[in-house]
Design a protein that fits this description.
The protein is 35% helix and 23% strand. It has 451 residues and is of the alpha/beta class. A 7-stranded mixed sheet has the order 3-4-5-2-1-6-7. Strands 15-14-16-17-13-18 form a 6-stranded parallel sheet. A 5-stranded mixed sheet has the order 8-10-11-12-9.
């Protein structure tokens, strides 16, 4: 008999809000998820359409399609399936009520004994964002009732911590986790960098080297990388993480104007020079801001011509690096600059890929994924599953700039990867949040504007 802490019976609106709510509430298989036949029927009705609820219905149906059947009984009217460390009990309707809410509630009540025979569960809870459903569940059953609190169930990792120390801190290059614990510092795996301020006011910045070691970084000594000089604390920490060969994936959640793409490019060029990476590949999700079109097929021209506008963020940064390298040249014609960019791309083997053309392909070297807040998790898996061993990946984006109408701040690929920060086996994933705008005061103002 499998043991679970809790069993959550989900109302349909929980899945339509975000299909990943199922995995979040499961909490890595600590809790059992229960749905009924009525819920499947309602999801089937919602699967067609272009709204977010239709997208979530389709994604959950795909999730079920990929699930493994653990056990089923047509006599007792149930099936148990499992997918991605989540177990779901599906119950056949045992109610002749006309209203779907009533059917769902009565079916659970009728199957309470069955559930208790199948599993060891401390508590059964109805979960719904519908006040009427919750009220009916309280009235008709003895089970607990909750609504989904997103702030409770969906938390992003801390990544950064700050500590204060009463005495002189250890001023050495590498410091172990055990040493830091002896100082009284509680450091989780998800922490990529920390700040320690001692009684004198002196501060130390420690950047994670691996699971057990932090590196004491002298931020003032960080040199320009390919003529790009980091301007602020966040950018310096970013470069420290990026240039660590132990880090396989760097996840960057950064508002507009913080220099994330430029820093990722300059770090990639330095890593290529230092460790001999074969190529640098740039991939950017082709979402049109304010529109639900995420494909480029309707645009005129060849694929390269269609993609050109989407590649400008990287090409603009290549132009900047070229100009900084050739400071004596005051004026550039458009043709000269275009040729210089082309030569730079050839010299450093910089390539551009389109997500729709990746099936059957293999990616290697350094891969920069930009605007990842507009990638679905499925998009991200499509890319990462094609990356060759020994490669390095930059995941760039801003949770505040989601243009994909089917995604929100919780179910996009950037949020997914932020929650992977602190992984050390079989690959090492570190992260950083950039908040200081270097582009200008207008960008700073609009990023902090509440509408």
């Amino acid at each position: 008999m499998e043991t679970f802490q809790k069993a959550y019976l989900l109302d349909t609106n929980i899945i339509l809000d975000d299909f990943l709510n199922v995995e979040i509430l499961s909490d890595k298989n600590s809790n059992l998820i229960i749905i009924t036949e009525t819920i499947l029927q309602e999801l089937d009705k919602y699967k067609s359409g272009g709204d977010i609820i239709n997208y979530n219905a389709r994604e959950f149906i795909r999730w079920l399609d990929n699930a493994k059947i653990i056990e089923k009984s047509s006599i007792d009217g149930y099936m148990i399936v499992s997918n991605n460390n989540t177990t779901i009990l599906i119950l056949q309707n045992t109610s002749d009520k006309e209203i779907n809410d009533d059917k769902i509630i009565e079916t659970l009540i009728n199957n309470q004994e069955l559930i208790e025979n199948l599993f060891s569960i401390q508590k059964i809870i109805f979960v719904s964002n519908d006040t009427i459903f919750r009220t009916k569940a309280l009235l008709l059953s003895d089970f607990d009732v909750e609504f989904l609190k997103k702030d409770t169930y969906k938390k992003f990792p801390t990544i950064f911590k700050e500590f204060y120390y009463d005495n002189c801190f250890v001023d050495k290059e590498f410091i172990s986790i055990n040493e830091l614990k002896n100082f009284g510092f509680d450091i989780e795996d998800e922490i990529s960098y920390i700040k320690v301020t001692e009684y004198s006011g002196k501060s130390f910045y420690l950047v994670r080297e691996d699971r057990n070691i932090f590196k004491n970084v002298n931020l003032d000594s960080i040199k320009p990388v390919f003529n790009i000089k980091p301007k602020n604390l966040g950018q310096k920490i970013f470069l420290s993480l990026a240039l660590n060969p132990k880090n396989t994936i760097i996840v960057v959640n950064a508002i507009a104007g913080t220099g994330k793409t430029l820093l990722a490019l300059s770090a990639s060029l330095q890593l290529q020079k230092q460790y001999g990476y074969s190529k640098i590949t740039y991939i950017r999700k082709t979402i049109i801001s304010g529109n639900n079109l995420d494909e480029v097929g309707f645009l005129p021209g060849s694929l390269n011509e269609k993609l050109y506008g989407y590649l400008l963020p990287l090409k603009d940064n290549i132009e900047l690096i070229i100009k900084l390298k050739n400071k004596r040249k005051k004026k550039w014609s458009l043709e000269e600059l275009k040729e210089a960019v082309k030569k730079f791309e050839n010299d450093h083997n910089i390539t551009y890929e389109y997500l729709g053309h990746l099936r059957g392909r293999t990616l290697e070297g350094i891969i920069i994924l930009d605007e990842v807040q507009n990638y679905s998790i499925k998009d991200l898996i499509t890319i990462l599953s094609r990356i060759k061993e020994g490669s390095k990946v930059f995941i760039l984006g801003s949770i505040k700039q989601i243009d994909n109408p089917y995604l929100n701040k919780y179910n996009n690929a950037l949020s997914f990867m932020l929650n992977q920060v602190g992984t050390f086996e079989p690959i090492q994933i570190q992260g950083i949040k950039l908040e200081k705008v270097e582009r200008g005061p207008i960008v700073d103002w609009i990023e902090n504007l509440t509408i």
